[in-house]
Every structure is written in structure tokens, then in C-alpha cells.
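Protocol step 4 of 6.
Sequence for LolT-1 (Pholiota conissans) entered exactly as in the expression construct, tag removed. Do not edit the line below.
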Amino acid sequence: MPTYPNMQLKNGLKAYKEDKPEFGHGMLKYYALDPSYINLNNGSYGTTPRPVTEAVHALSERIEANPDLFHRIEFKPLLDEARQRVADLIGAKRDEVVFVANASMGVNTVLRNFEWEEGDIIFEFRTTYGSISRTVQYLHDRPPHPTASTINVLFPTTHAEIIEVFKKHVKANPALPNKKRVAVIDSIVSNPGVTLPWKELVKICKEEGIFSVIDAAHSIGQEVGVNLKESDPDFWISNCHKWLSAKRSCAALYVPERNQHIIKASIPTSHAYISPKDRKGPNFVEQFDWNGTIDYASYITVTDALEFREWMGGEERLNKYCHDLAIQGGQVLAEIFGTRVMDPNGDLTLNMVNVELPLPKDLPATVATISGLHRRLFAKKAFSAPFFHNGAWWTRCSAQVWNEISDFEELGKRWLEVCADVKKDFDQSK
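Step 5 output, C-alpha cells:
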């Protein structure tokens, strides 16, 4: 286990007292990554830094020393501190933010708390994350069968075109009398890894009387300058374990005070649940503080993750490095592949870049195909996420503070080998 310069133990948690580190391969000592593995897929599951893992272990030891004391008394101020730190980062009040297991759980909590009626409409995008899209379908499938309405957006495109498509779609699907409309909007799409103009779409929702549910799974820790007081979505959910460096799994669920009456019950339902007929006001936070025994370490050590990021130089510094590397790395990969980047101007790119793979366009886009690509790339000790979109195969590469341009170069070589093998097998199968 490496040592961390000038680190001190403070209240059982790690604090970092050294100058800002240089980004690149020198940062690998702060992560548990296999040194022979090229990881350009932080966006899927996150990558916990060693200091945060150590903080989790230290907290776990404290919990196990007296589980009753911790779970009955000590956890609450630590949880409140972590919620405050996240609230400060995203421009919210502490009691508008709670933790849930992941973004899918957060979006499900919101959508399943609406009192659906026949004639209500749930808008989703063609690129909505799979489990969320399936949630919308599930809600449509069960009584009272709200309408599921899909907005067709394909990439490459522009923010201006997305805004126009969204406007036209909601105008073409007006609310029926006394019925509601709810829009599920990605802030950053999972695949392709591109930003949506979510703040502008929230404004349109307000003008149209539509509830906005922002699936911001990739935002916190990647999208700098989030201020929910200003953008004012109706709901916003983001994973802290993807880009914020927290231990998986942990997500922030933001519900402004004006909408907390909508969230009648946590999932699972908490002992703090109060029937609406007896409730004097929302008890949003209380329900999520305790809705069954869980390991609170991932939630509480969000504080340590934020301290680690501050030690690295803060959100703007580290995200500038990752963004610049993603832009440069995408161009390098496209040259190696002889293909293109999805977003050549970089307008929709933060720290994830999408590059077309040199694979046959008629290669079946099946689970078996994608699983096969995964296995072949894993065998070469590298990974970036492959996916099929708009008639072509792509890979989404996540740039992180431990990466350098040489990682993209080496990944490109390994992908070329995989693609050549896949193409050979595919041609022989015809």
C-alpha cells in the first residue's frame, strides 16, 4: 500500500495536506487499478480513490465497534454533513438533498410517487438510459396506463436541433384537461456520452406546465457549475460514485421544497412514512435518513471524496484536464481507426468522447455481440464502452485524472485488433 504525502488522520477521516498533484499516470498510485489495465470507462461505475477507500474502511471499523451506537445515534450528523457538502456543490439547500443507492433508484422513486391517471403523458428520449426507459414502459403497462411518448433524437446533432425537436414534440402532445405531463431528461446521455441542453429543456417544461425529471447520472463531478437554484428543475438525480470519486454505490436525489409533497414514500417505505391524510407537512428527509438497514459508509464518505477532489485542485482544474484530454484523445482514436468523432466541434462533449469503431455497420447490434466485444477487449486488458447508435458502432471513452494521451493510443491499437478479429469472424459467418 503506497503512502500519501503529508496525510493526517482527522476525526478518523483522511485530510490531505500537500500541493496540487500533477495529473496523468502519476495519479495511479492513488487508485487500486491494475497497472496493466487501461481504464477509459470511468463513466460506467466510477473508480474509487485509495484514500476514499481507506476512509470507508476506517468508518466501517467504527461502525462495527458498536453497531447500535452508530446506527441509532452517530450516523445522523455524519450523513447530514455529507448532504450539506453535496448541496453546497450543486446549489441546493441541505434538506432538498438525500442519498439513494443509484440514479435508477432515484428516478424510480420520483416516477413511482406520482399519482398517475389515464391520459397523463410521460416523455422520454430515444437515448434514455435502458432501466429508466423500461421504468417508463412499466408504468405505462400497469393501470391506469399513462401514455409513454418517445422523443426521437439521434446523434450527431446539435443542442439547437434538440431544443427544436423537444419543443415540437411536446407541442404535438398537449396535456389533456386536468392531466399532467412529466418529462424524463438526461443531463448527459449515457450512450452516446453527450450533453443535452437540459437547462433550456427545463425552461420549456416550465412554459408548458410539464414536470421535469433530470436524470443527471453523469453530472455531479463532471459538469462544472451546476446550480439547481438557478436551473430550477422539478427533480434532479446524480450518481456520486461515477465522477465524484465516492465509493459505489451512492446517488444524490434533489427535490426542491415545493415538490416534496409529491414524494410521499421512499423506496422501500420508511418507518417515518406518514399517511397524506395525517401529514402536517413533508417529511422528505426523515424518510430517506432511515428506510431499512444499509451500509452508510458509501453515503457518509462522500465528504472524503469531496476533500480528495479539493486536494487535487478542485472541480474546475480536474475537469479541465479531463475535458481537454477527452477532446484530444477522441481525435487521436479517430485517426487510428480511420473514422470520426461523433461531436467534432466538442460542443456536446465534457469528459466522455464518442468515436466510431471500424466495425461492419451490419454487424448485429445484439446483447451477444456487445458481450463478445466486452470479452475480447477485456482479454487485451483495456476497456471503453462499445455501443450501436444511428447506424454505426461507437465506443465511449471516459477521460480521468490518471489517464494520458498514450492510453488512447494504446487503446486504439487494442481495439483495432478486436475489430479485425470480429470482422473476420463476421465475414466467415455470412
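Step 6, annotate. The first helix runs from residue 42 to 45.
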